[in-house]
Design goal:
Blueprint lengths: L1 H27 L3 H6 L5 H29 L1 H21 L3 H14 L2 H12 L2 H29 L5 H21 L4 H10 L7 H9 L4 H28 L4 H11 L1
Membrane topology: Multi-pass membrane protein
Keywords: Membrane, Transmembrane, Transmembrane helix, Transport
Organism: Caldithrix abyssi
Length: about 260
C-alpha cells in the first residue's frame, strides 16, 4: 500500500513537472515571430530561430538522459529546470536577435525534463501500469499546449517579455515540486541498463530500437507526427503574422484552440 501511495505521488509530481514545462513552452512559441520581427528578423530567420530550440533539444536530451542513468533522475531534473528558468529569463531580457538565438538554444539544450520524466515513469512502474504513467505525460502535453498559448496571448498585451517571465516562473514552480515531492528513482533503471550491457539513453540504443520489428515502426510514426506538428506550429505562427497580419494575441489564441 505504501509503495502504491509513493508511486502515485511520484506520478503526480511527474505530471506537474511535465505540465508546467509544456505550458512554458507553449507560452512563447506563438510569440516568437512577433518578438523576432522587432529585431529585424525575416521569415527565414524566424524559422531558424524556432528550429534552433528543437535542434539543441535533439542534442541535449540524450545527454541528460545518459547523465540521469549514472547520477540520478532528481539532480538532472534540478539542473535542466534551472536551465529552463535561466533561458526564459534571458529570452525576456533579449535586446538583439543574437540574444534571442542564444536563449532558445540554451533553453532547448537544457530542456531534458520530458525525457527524464519518462525515465522516472519507467523506473517506478511495471509493464501493467507503464501505459498509464506515460499517458499522464501525454495528457500534460495536450493541456500544456492548450493553456500555454492562451496564457501567452493574454500576457503579450503588456509586452513580449511578460510571457517569457511567466514561463520562467512556471518552471521555478516545477523546480519547487521536484525538491518537495520527488524522491530519487533511478537505481532500478540504472540496474536494468547495466544488466543490458549498456545505457538506456544512447545513439546505439536508438539504432538498435529502430531495427526491432515492433518498436521501429512506432518510433518512425512518432517522428513523423512530431515533425508534422512542429512544422505546423512554426509555419502557422509565421504565416499568421507575415501572411495574414494577425496580432500576437490572435495567433496565440488560435494555436490554443488547435491545442
Amino acid at each position: 500500500m505504501e509503495t502504491t501511495r509513493t508511486s502515485n505521488r511520484v506520478l503526480t509530481t511527474v505530471f506537474i513537472i511535465s505540465f508546467l514545462n509544456l505550458i512554458g513552452f507553449g507560452i512563447v512559441i506563438p510569440l516568437i515571430p512577433y518578438y523576432a520581427e522587432g529585431f529585424g528578423a525575416n521569415t527565414a530567420v524566424v524559422g531558424f530561430l524556432i528550429g534552433s530550440y528543437a535542434a539543441a533539444q535533439f542534442l541535449g536530451a540524450p545527454l541528460w538522459g545518459r547523465i540521469s542513468d549514472h547520477r540520478g533522475r532528481k539532480p538532472v531534473l534540478v539542473v535542466t529546470i534551472i536551465g529552463s528558468v535561466l533561458g526564459y529569463i534571458l529570452f525576456g531580457l533579449a535586446n538583439s536577435l543574437l540574444i534571442l538565438f542564444v536563449s532558445r538554444i540554451f533553453t532547448g539544450f537544457t530542456n531534458g525534463n520530458i525525457s527524464v520524466a519518462q525515465a522516472i515513469v519507467t523506473d517506478i512502474t511495471d509493464e501493467r501500469d507503464r501505459a498509464r504513467g506515460l499517458g499522464l505525460i501525454g495528457a500534460a502535453f495536450g493541456l500544456g499546449l492548450i493553456l500555454g498559448p492562451a496564457l501567452g496571448g493574454f500576457l503579450s498585451r503588456w509586452g513580449y517579455d511578460w510571457p517569457a517571465y511567466a514561463a520562467a516562473f512556471l518552471n521555478f514552480l516545477s523546480l519547487f515540486s521536484v525538491f518537495i515531492w520527488l524522491p530519487e528513482t533511478s537505481p532500478r533503471g540504472a540496474e536494468r541498463a547495466a544488466a543490458a550491457g549498456g545505457n538506456a539513453f544512447s545513439w546505439r540504443a536508438l539504432t538498435t530500437a529502430l531495427r526491432r520489428p515492433l518498436v521501429g515502426p512506432v518510433l518512425q510514426v512518432r517522428f513523423v507526427f512530431a515533425l508534422s506538428f512542429s512544422t505546423f506550429a512554426t509555419v502557422f505562427a509565421i504565416y499568421a503574422e507575415f501572411g495574414l497580419g494577425y496580432s500576437a494575441q490572435t495567433t496565440a489564441y488560435l494555436l490554443a484552440y488547435v491545442g
